[in-house]
C-alpha cells in the first residue's frame, strides 16, 4: 500500500515536471529565456528533504553482518533509499554508575570499534552512490529505535540481524548455515 502511494507521488511529480517543460518552451518561444531558466533552478533544501526516504540498518552492537550489509545495499539501491546505519550498546550512566571512570573509556572504545567496523559498509554505499549516515547510541535497541524515529521521521524500513547468536543445527548435505535477517516496515 505504501509503495503504491510512493509510485503515485512520483507519477504526480513527473506530470508537474512535464508542465514545467511546456511552460519553459512557451517562455523561450516568446523570447523570454530568463523566465524559462527560472523554472529549472535547484529546489530548496525543504523541498528535497520531503523526498528523502531512509532505510535503517541496525547492527549487532558494534558490527554489521555481511548478509545484512549486502541486503541493505541492494534494497537501498533498488528503492532509492538513504541508509542510516545504527550501532547500539546499553552503556548508559545507570549501567556503570559505580564505575564512572570506566564508563567513559568503554563508550570511547565502543565508538572507535563501531566506526572501524562500519567503514567497509560506508565505502561500499559510496561506491554505489547511496547516501549514508552512521549513528551510535548508548542505549538498548528498542530505545535507540525510538530515538532514531524521532530524529529521522522518514524511516520506511528497518533491517537488522538477530539480537544474539543462536545455536544452529548442523547443515544437511550441501546446505549452508544462514542467520535470519529481519526486515520490517515503519508504517
Question: Can you give a write-up of this model?
Answer:
This protein is α/β, with parallel strands linked by helices. 50% of the residues lie in helices and 15% in strands. Strands 3-2-1-4-5 form a five-stranded mixed sheet. Helix 5 links the parallel strand 2 (82-88) and strand 3. 17% of the residues are buried.
Mean pLDDT across all residues, rounded?
77
Report, as a whole number of angstroms, the end-to-end distance.
10 Å
Give the strand tally: 5
Helix content: 40-55%
Top-tier CATH class of the largest domain = Alpha Beta
CATH superfamily of the largest domain: HUPs
Low-confidence runs: 44-49, 165-170
Secondary structure tally, helices: 6
Which descriptor suits the 3D outline?
elongated
What's this, in brief?
The protein is α/β, with parallel strands linked by helices and 187 residues long. It has six helices and five strands.
Which keywords apply here?
five-stranded mixed β-sheet, alpha/beta, Rossmann fold, 15% strand, 187 residues, 6 helices
Topology overview:
Elements lengths: L1 H28 L3 H6 L6 H6 L3 E5 L7 H14 L2 E7 L11 H28 L4 E6 L3 H11 L3 E6 L21 E4 L2
Parallel strand pairs: 1-2, 1-4, 2-3
Antiparallel strand pairs: 4-5
Amino acid at each position: 500500500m505504501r509503495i503504491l502511494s510512493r509510485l503515485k507521488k512520483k507519477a504526480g511529480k513527473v506530470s508537474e515536471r512535464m508542465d514545467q517543460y511546456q511552460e519553459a518552451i512557451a517562455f523561450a518561444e516568446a523570447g523570454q529565456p530568463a523566465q524559462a531558466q527560472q523554472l529549472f533552478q535547484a529546489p530548496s533544501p525543504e523541498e528535497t528533504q520531503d523526498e528523502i526516504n531512509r532505510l535503517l540498518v541496525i547492527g549487532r552492537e558494534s558490527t554489521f553482518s555481511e548478509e545484512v550489509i549486502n541486503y541493505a545495499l541492494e534494497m537501498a539501491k533498488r528503492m532509492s533509499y538513504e541508509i542510516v546505519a545504527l550501532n547500539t550498546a546499553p552503556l548508559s550512566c545507570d549501567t556503570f554508575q559505580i564505575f564512572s571512570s570506566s564508563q567513559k573509556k568503554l563508550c570511547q572504545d565502543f565508538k572507535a570499534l563501531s566506526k572501524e567496523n562500519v567503514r567497509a559498509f560506508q565505502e561500499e554505499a559510496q561506491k554505489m552512490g547511496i547516501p549514508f549516515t552512521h549513528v551510535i547510541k548508548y542505549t538498548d535497541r528498542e530505545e535507540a529505535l525510538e530515538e532514531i524515529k524521532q530524529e529521522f521521521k522518514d524511516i520506511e524500513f528497518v533491517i537488522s540481524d538477530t539480537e544474539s547468536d543462536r545455536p544452529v543445527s548442523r547443515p544437511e548435505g550441501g546446505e549452508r548455515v544462514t542467520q535470519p535477517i529481519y526486515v520490517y516496515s515503519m508504517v
